[in-house]
Amino acid sequence: MTTVAAYAAPAAKAPLERTTIERRPVGEHDVLIEIKFAGICHSDIHQAREGWGEAIFPMVPGHEIAGVVAEVGSGVTKFTVGDRVGVGCMVDSCRECDQCRAGLEQYCVKGMTGTYNAVGKDGEPTYGGYSTHIVVDEAYTVRIPEGLALDEAAPLLCAGITTYSPLKHWNAGPGKKVAILGMGGLGHMAVKIAHALGAEVTVLSQSLRKKDDGLKLGADHYYATSDPETFEELRGTFDVILSTVSAPLDLDRFLSLLRADGAFVNVGAPEEPVSLNLFSVIGGRKTLAGSSIGGIRETQEMLDFCAGHGFGAEIELISASEINEAYERVLASDVRYRFVIDVATI
């Protein structure tokens, strides 16, 4: 076991504080990663504050991890010391079910093992990226292409793949009208990716405050959902609406913006249930769907895609001492567009 520095929430809703944690020895197929940068995802806040249900404490959040391989196990074939690597939202799965064999480890029938707030096969809790080092099986580690700066790559390990996977699955591309609901950490990546895929991209945001940013990142159109005329003007317009919003929505209003056979896909996860009038999907044979991150193979594909198109995330780099302030700013939508922790400051 190796003792490393980390930032952890000692209890639900408690401020995060500097501490130490134990990392397992490097096994035959493991890599030891010296973490350079860790993104702050809204889901870190949900879990640290038990918004999604009972959680495991102390909790070291962080599943947007970018770093460098410091040591490899004797059986490792994918990586060597010095390689630039990333770790996303999962560090294991059963590896045997149909989903795992299909490269859809995120939908593992037995449940994938989260990078933090989970229990590994060794019976020990997992700790995430707000720490100086992590030990991960090479099969759940991805390579960060040279064209991506590590700090701008870190958020791609959740925000990037969480939006790339559904956009690919629902065939966002040339000839498709795609709306991105919300222009935050997830939404800004969705705009970049949908634009790079060749879709006609519209941002639907509460206000026009971020309109200039949205257009600069690749949106063709930008509308305020606080304006009732938006819903009249855009009725029956979109093939796909990707919702990155983690607050409850009036689903019936947004479903009215889909054309026949359109899909409203949720990647934002509100803490409260939402209601739905089923006539909103029956009329127009519409789909209400959800999507969760992506498999390891698709995560690598996403990183290569972003590098090939020359973009990472839009970030604000912070020191570890600013984590608690950053959480409050995320909740106030006061970040453009992803906080990333400089792990050297831990």
Question: Could you describe the 3D structure shown?
Answer:
It is a single chain. The mean pLDDT is 97. Helix 4 packs across helix 10 (296-308). This protein is globular. The longest helix has 13 residues, at 185-197. The protein has eleven helices and 17 strands. With 346 residues, the protein is α/β, with parallel strands linked by helices. The strands form four sheets. Strands 3, 4, 5, 8, 9, 16 and 17 form a seven-stranded mixed beta sheet that branches. The chain has a six-stranded parallel beta sheet with strand order 12-11-10-13-14-15, covered by helices on one side. A two-stranded antiparallel ribbon has the order 1-2.
Binned, the helix content reads 10-25%
Number of helices: 11
Radius of gyration: 20 Å
Give the H and E element order: EEEHEEEHEEEHHEHEHEHEHEHEHEHE
- Sheet-strand content, in percent, reads 25-35%
What is the terminal-to-terminal distance?
20 Å
Beta strands, count: 17
The biggest beta sheet reads: 7 strands, mixed
SS-based structural class? alpha/beta
Average per-residue pLDDT, rounded, comes to: 97
Shape: globular
Low-confidence stretches: none
